Amino acid sequence: MDKIGIEEMIRSLSTLRTEKMYLKDFFHTWKHSDDEIRATFEVAEILRGMRENNISSRVFDSGLAISLFRDNSTRTRFSFASACNLLGLEVQDLDEGKSQIAHGETVRETANMISFMADVIGIRDDMYIGKGHTYMKTVAQAVEDGHYDGVLEQRPTLVNLQCDIDHPTQSMADALHVINEFGGVENLKGKKLAMTWAYSPSYGKPLSVPQGIIGLFTRFGMDVVLAHPEGYNVMPEMEGVAAKNAQKSGGSFSKVNSMAEAFKDADIVYPKSWAPFSVMEERTKIVETGDQQALKELEKRCLAQNAQFIDWECTEELMSTTREGKALYLHCLPADISGVSCEKGEVAASVFDRYRDPLYKQASFKPYIIAAMIFLAKFRNPSEKLLDLLTDARKRIY
Amino acid sequence: MDKIGIEEMIRSLSTLRTEKMYLKDFFHTWKHSDDEIRATFEVAEILRGMRENNISSRVFDSGLAISLFRDNSTRTRFSFASACNLLGLEVQDLDEGKSQIAHGETVRETANMISFMADVIGIRDDMYIGKGHTYMKTVAQAVEDGHYDGVLEQRPTLVNLQCDIDHPTQSMADALHVINEFGGVENLKGKKLAMTWAYSPSYGKPLSVPQGIIGLFTRFGMDVVLAHPEGYNVMPEMEGVAAKNAQKSGGSFSKVNSMAEAFKDADIVYPKSWAPFSVMEERTKIVETGDQQALKELEKRCLAQNAQFIDWECTEELMSTTREGKALYLHCLPADISGVSCEKGEVAASVFDRYRDPLYKQASFKPYIIAAMIFLAKFRNPSEKLLDLLTDARKRIY
Amino acid sequence: MDKIGIEEMIRSLSTLRTEKMYLKDFFHTWKHSDDEIRATFEVAEILRGMRENNISSRVFDSGLAISLFRDNSTRTRFSFASACNLLGLEVQDLDEGKSQIAHGETVRETANMISFMADVIGIRDDMYIGKGHTYMKTVAQAVEDGHYDGVLEQRPTLVNLQCDIDHPTQSMADALHVINEFGGVENLKGKKLAMTWAYSPSYGKPLSVPQGIIGLFTRFGMDVVLAHPEGYNVMPEMEGVAAKNAQKSGGSFSKVNSMAEAFKDADIVYPKSWAPFSVMEERTKIVETGDQQALKELEKRCLAQNAQFIDWECTEELMSTTREGKALYLHCLPADISGVSCEKGEVAASVFDRYRDPLYKQASFKPYIIAAMIFLAKFRNPSEKLLDLLTDARKRIY
């Protein structure tokens, strides 16, 4: 995208209503209007375009972005760091210890103590059903109160870097990738996306990716199919969100218990392992009791159950049944690749290999999506600000 | 504070003598003149005012600030990171391992090796009596020599983020909070402050907070009362500093062995646990021998001794005996709150709850105090530099 | 160096051909032309001069530098952080876990995932023969491919912060120190440098320092002598590089099995412990099998072997046999100092003490060397860019 293209996209952005994002958080895509979702895509593209044209989008002369990862993460950590650095914010990690499930008052105090000069807080807390989003809301309320009470000079914006319910920076990056591959969001209408469970030799993978995908892609008039073995349900509320979105957008949302059926004539496939919602609930309860023995037994039982569905693998044969045998293969990475990272996994090595470049491109949108979420929360009139940056054209590399 | 207010405060600052702070360190408040203490408060307020008016106070285009925490710390770490970021310095952590007590030559070499491009070094080393300040002096001497010998292009400024003797960034932030609450430092004259020991279910909390408080607040013409059970003495030298300050400032410094007596008609109360000086000395000797058994026995003995004073708690009843029942409650946080963070602790939950906002505000001054200490060490003519920043009015957020 | 001096050095730089460094990596000094080596020295000196004159050399308005240390490191970590900060890059650490020996596909994926906004990647991987450099090449190829395939907007530059073969940021910093001590690279012609093994109570120190030194200093027309006990050979290929360089530069490269012989009339001595190449090979194989018992036996055997050469120590007596008894003593630090950091080590305490300042100065060049390597990889016309910076004369400290 050249400067003319960037300027055009800024004009398009100026027609969208984003004022409700100003000084607010980004938790779940379905809490945001179509304008807001579209604006996030456009700001991401504009920031990417500016960077490719060596135009600085550093809008903070100083400022802190706090990262709080309650789970190991290299990719999301680097995406967040990249996004913040692009805008001029310095990342400071808050390391609370992974295993802790913090309580109300402590969270409130800590949230204020770290936020005196914080412009952004990015949180990843995806491990326990009923916990992650609740924790983020507690932090958000704490800094809201802190700002109201005059403790905090500014109210930091929260960005959900993955919770137990949604993974908006992932699904939005995935969507922006798809939009680019299909040449525009309008071209997604009527396309079939198969979000399907796949076998993995591990258990307990979060639900936030499949939930985030069905919750977002149903907005684009697509035929979204959720496929999984019986019992591997996602949260019922999320199926409701998907159904409602589909109805509104003129698409469809359906469920099947067969990977083959989901793949049939699909334009896009997203085969990925997750743990059943009921197992995630059970696990959370066990973790709260601290019963290591029960945790081991749960794992053993779940792995045995998973083993029944070892044929839920994204093979060449299955891929050949998709639209012209050329469906776009998506994954949030890292994938469990059969014969590479494990004996049997989510995807055949040859399929994964063939889609390596698109997969890496898919991931490349995440830093820009995060930066866009921050940008839209920090500027009441984002298009004006972006036009200023484009006009100034300060070089990123001198 | 608006721009006019900031400009007025800069003019006030310009009348103070701060040239001896230039290129020097900040170790103990009592090593600094009244002008220097006042200048630190004023620069902190000015930097805060500028930030609130979206004026950048980034005075370093590049530069490193090294943090060296020989003890876990979230709050001080974030305060230091915030202060450095506000001025344009990037924090780089030096992680030497907590348990090590480093020796002279190693310290000298390491201090030089990390300082080739360091503008600031912030150190927290509060655990062992006779060690923390000594360590900081060793580092300061090493970089002084390094600069003199042409090894270091610049001499980094040291900021004491808590040692075994003083905790100047805490006591100065506390004081600035009190000054704001009472509407000016001149209003502190004749006010009664009770720095009092309080019960905690742990042992071994550092002495630097009570010592820092009696060492600083006695400068403002206040009646400072230090209260603790018999035997829970602070360092004798520090009582001397407090007495001398009080005499000079026209206030008073006294000691009592009753929390009730200290609270009576107090304008400000600071109930907080600490370990007796003699115990801290004993513990340091044991740690040096590495005798884990002896350490456990010491802990057991001290906890048993503490248990005798479980009624040293800041209750509603005690609070009602303070001036109009409305003394300002201070704490450096986190507090041991009865029935919340422990069964019985330093303060009743209802008291703590009532003072939550002021407590958070108290903490909010620390980043600005640290930034002010750095600023005064880096600019020979701080008021001129601040006036330049105000005139330029470069935006912090674009 | 004043501004006139800086400008003169920039003019000198403009006569050197560096276009092949543009957008490339820095792995081994011997892969670079004489012009490129000289340009690296000059850019380092220019950046140092500019910093000393409070002129900012921040050429990145935003940007990430990724550090990947597969081994503990304080000094190199700080040198890299300093260099990056000087240029405006923010360091983000990638912590993969020290013990892992990562495999091809994982490396490729991770390299891309962290590089979407990375301008530089600094890697230290020196522990295992045949691994470190191979790993760096894999990363370099991955980001090369990523850039070619449109995944990465820019191709990050790799800087070798120490591999199993070379330690170019060390040897280049050492050389720049020597050049400064001797008043110019032209004065090194005919000077004798003794790179000699020395006793240490540990085993397994990397070969990259002695190899880097003989691979670089032989380029300056010097008489480079490599001394070690029989069997403590470095990699044969590296002796070949040294011999070839010496022939080309009009100097010499020779090997002796006596520390005394090497020191005789030497102008520069570099006594330092390392493990024999054959031991390093054996150790790598054992580590790959994970046989802890075999690893312990190897250590025991090697320490016993080392003990036979406990008299390979840089003593006052040996120093007195050097040119006028005044050879320049070099070490990459930290040194094993007899009676200080160990009972018997590489160097006598009095020798080390006498050379403390020069040793610290030696180390002080490393951040500038790293910054120069990055600078030359990022600008096609480095002298023009440096002249712009000098002319702008933006202040580093406001």
From TrEMBL, chains A, B, C:
Keyword list, A-Z: Transferase
Top-level division of the source organism's lineage: Bacteria
InterPro entries, per the entry: Asp/Orn_carbamoyltranf_P-bd, Asp/Orn_carbamoylTrfase, Asp/Orn_carbamoylTrfase_sf, Asp_carbamoyltransf_Asp/Orn-bd, Carbamoyltransferase_YgeW
Start and end residues of each Aspartate/ornithine carbamoyltransferase carbamoyl-P binding domain: 24-178
Example GO BP: L-arginine biosynthetic process via ornithine
Regions crossing the membrane: none
Residue ranges annotated for the Aspartate/ornithine carbamoyltransferase Asp/Orn-binding domain, each copy included: 213-374
A molecular function GO annotation: ornithine carbamoyltransferase activity
Signal peptide: none
Family, similarity comment: Belongs to the aspartate/ornithine carbamoyltransferase superfamily.
NCBIfam families associated with the record: PRK07200.1, ygeW
Protein name: Carbamoyltransferase YgeW
Organism listed in the record: Sediminispirochaeta smaragdinae (strain DSM 11293 / JCM 15392 / SEBR 4228)
